[in-house]
Amino acid sequence: MSQVKGVEWRIKVEDGRWKKAVTSCSMWTLIASFYSKLSKFIKKAWEIGVNDPRKFIHCLKVGIALTSVSLFYYLKPLYDGVGRNAMWAVMTVIVVFEYTAGATIYKSINRICGTTLAGLLAFGVHWVASRAGEQWEPVIVGFSLFLLASAATFSRFIPTIKARFDYGAMIFILTFSLVSVSGYRIDELFAMAQQRISTIIIGTSLCIIVSITIRPVWAGLELYVLVTGNLHKLANSLQGCVDQYFEAQTANEESNKKLMGYKCVLNSKASEDSMANLARWEPAHGNFNFCHPWKQYLKIGATMRRCASCIDALIGCIHSENKTSDNMKKIMSQSSMKVGTNSACVLRELAITIKSMTKSNKLDILVVEMNNSAQELQNLLKSYPDTHNNSNAKMEIPIIEIIQVVTVVSLITEIVARVEDIVKSVEELSNLAKFEPAMFKCDKSKQHSTDNKISPEEQEKDEVAIIKTLQMV
Amino acid sequence: MSQVKGVEWRIKVEDGRWKKAVTSCSMWTLIASFYSKLSKFIKKAWEIGVNDPRKFIHCLKVGIALTSVSLFYYLKPLYDGVGRNAMWAVMTVIVVFEYTAGATIYKSINRICGTTLAGLLAFGVHWVASRAGEQWEPVIVGFSLFLLASAATFSRFIPTIKARFDYGAMIFILTFSLVSVSGYRIDELFAMAQQRISTIIIGTSLCIIVSITIRPVWAGLELYVLVTGNLHKLANSLQGCVDQYFEAQTANEESNKKLMGYKCVLNSKASEDSMANLARWEPAHGNFNFCHPWKQYLKIGATMRRCASCIDALIGCIHSENKTSDNMKKIMSQSSMKVGTNSACVLRELAITIKSMTKSNKLDILVVEMNNSAQELQNLLKSYPDTHNNSNAKMEIPIIEIIQVVTVVSLITEIVARVEDIVKSVEELSNLAKFEPAMFKCDKSKQHSTDNKISPEEQEKDEVAIIKTLQMV
């Protein structure tokens, strides 16, 4: 018998001959390609973690919380205390533990409230049903289940409830169904409900403690870093595109990346909304007290997006076909770039105001400077043919040469107006959050570094991580 | 003894006298104010349902699914089949049943896959641990729990996994923990796992059946209606703002609402993303087959938002201080409004193309017309001082008078360019989804009305409901 040394697949090609298709080697190619894909995936995943080590830490935190709650099963005395229902504690930890402290607290409170409320109601229904006689019992239980489940489901469509109690409504339905359905069979209903609530309280407390004590990720801080970062991005984009147009800089990769920063601003609405929603559940942390006006950050975000969409239009117009004469551009260049720089300064000062949580004493001056330079630019444009030619020989300007510059200047003026809106919304924030005047800034910052729970170095590390993550998105 | 006729609370005011504070009447005021608040809330909730009756239907569907799954408890033979674990079926229904069919299917598949995978792995670990001897058993189980839970938690940070298997990863951790933790105590592990998986399959199948058969809400259809509706809104905004500027129409509430339509376009990114994500889980429905290119709708959405941000800038410039002379405005008016009308026509034709899922044969002509009118407008602007004055007496134009018109015209040109981008992305969609040429449109539409699972009237009702909901957001 001849030994088989290899397998080959053949395909009959068009002209009738057989062609070798898949040799045994292809098997290895397949495996190799799978392996390369897998290693690429793992590399990408690793990068996600390296860019934001808090994600690794979060995984460890989940592991710690889970292992601690499992102790209820492993340790005999604790097991005897809560019995088989310890399962609910494990489940609670897995379902409730989220990346940010705010989300964990939101889910914990919702779970406890939903469970308690539903448990009490289910008891009531069960009591009424048991009085009504055996024949009516399933009818009453079934009807109440149908009614309450439908009502709770509908409540999740109402925006105010959706924002705060969406998870609670689901848990309400879950608990009510389980208690009323199992109540029909099991007699030890009271003990079960009591155990379930106590295990849930154990699970949620554990989650909240682990989430808050071990390197916490605050949704509020995340929002705050996002908004200040976006202000910087907006400033860079604005200054970058004005400079690129008037100085005709050659665009390199670095400057292009800076220029595109405004796109992050346009796309960050969803993150801002969810973080502001979660931040209000968080206790006082760092420089934020419990009633910090998180909603105001959403208003700031909205004004920033309005400014960003104007920058988008500006960039579009810069790349349009109507090119301006170099002469005209040169004349307008200095004033325009001054407006660009000044408004970028205002945006950066706003970022500093939010970051340091102190009312800036430079801001008013910077805004006045920005407005003055914008007015100057307008005046320069309006007086263009007069001022830049020999006074008497008034030259006629071909309109084609000025279209682009006029548009750019108008849009810059519009951007300045929108930057002022951002200023107003940040000032509102500084009033609502009672920012202190900047006079005591230096002393304060020293004081903070000793008083604060989070050291400035740690906070900075967190911020770098958040920024890195945001850049990846 | 004297009879008590009323109670009153008093406060000592600054000058030392006592003042009546809360009389027994105030109690009623309090209740009345609470009642009025409650009735307002209920009214608002009712309106939400009336505007989109599918929400009421969804609640009924949840009730039906829950009541049917409860039968497993109520009916003795079925109860004997799956026993106490029937609880898992109830739980599955509550957790898995979502508003759209896509979301329900996504959660169902994730739940089944996550449970099965985790169950198998937990068995493996348990088997290894039981071989290692009693001393090592808790160590191996605990360590594997820690490791796998951390890994699965981390996988939820990876974007591709988050988009498709976020829920599955959570269920994986949940099942693995429950099986491995309870496995340490309970011997009937195999029976438990088997029962759990079968109850989950029962629950998910029930959810999918109810969700798909009773007046289904398709995420795909929702996305499609959102995108076509946004195209109409964009068209109305664009035409509205051009008309308002050049015709100096007095703005009434109706026209202002139309004008602000572009804001919905700017804010719909999050909804589009989530719906496109869910739509790919849905089976073929209506005119959409299983591999319908849902992602392309996101591209269309992105190009629409770029156009909308340009409209935002345009509206800003229209309200700026630099007013144009009526004369200049009058001269430009006709051409500008023509561009506005033509590009609105293109946008509406795109909406029709997507809506009817047929390649439009008018579209090319409309795009050419739009571009021609834009070019005309440009030419008119460029030749402005020459053409509109007595040829030889060349008048000098004060630049202040033309700033606004030049900006408006430039922005309109930019908008036209961006509308062309939308056209390109819709054309890509029509190629990817293999839209048929419009020639057979009339016959087709007749055919559809008999062939289709959803009657056109029903679909239209749904669309009206979706649009009403979107308007409320």
Automatic annotation (TrEMBL), chains A, B:
Report the transmembrane regions from the record. 56-75, 87-105, 135-155, 167-185, 197-218
Any single GO BP term:
malate transport
Lineage top rank: taxon: Eukaryota
Q: Which GO terms describe its cellular component?
A: membrane
What Pfam families does the record tag this protein with? ALMT
Q: What is its main location?
A: membrane
Q: Tell me what topology the record assigns in the membrane.
A: Multi-pass membrane protein
> Which InterPro entries does its entry note?
ALMT (IPR020966)
| The protein's name | Aluminum-activated malate transporter 10 isoform X4
The family assignment reads: Belongs to the aromatic acid exporter (TC 2.A.85) family.
Location in or out of the cell: Membrane
Keywords linked to the UniProt accession: Ion channel, Ion transport, Membrane, Transmembrane, Transmembrane helix, Transport
Please name the source species: Cicer arietinum (Chickpea)
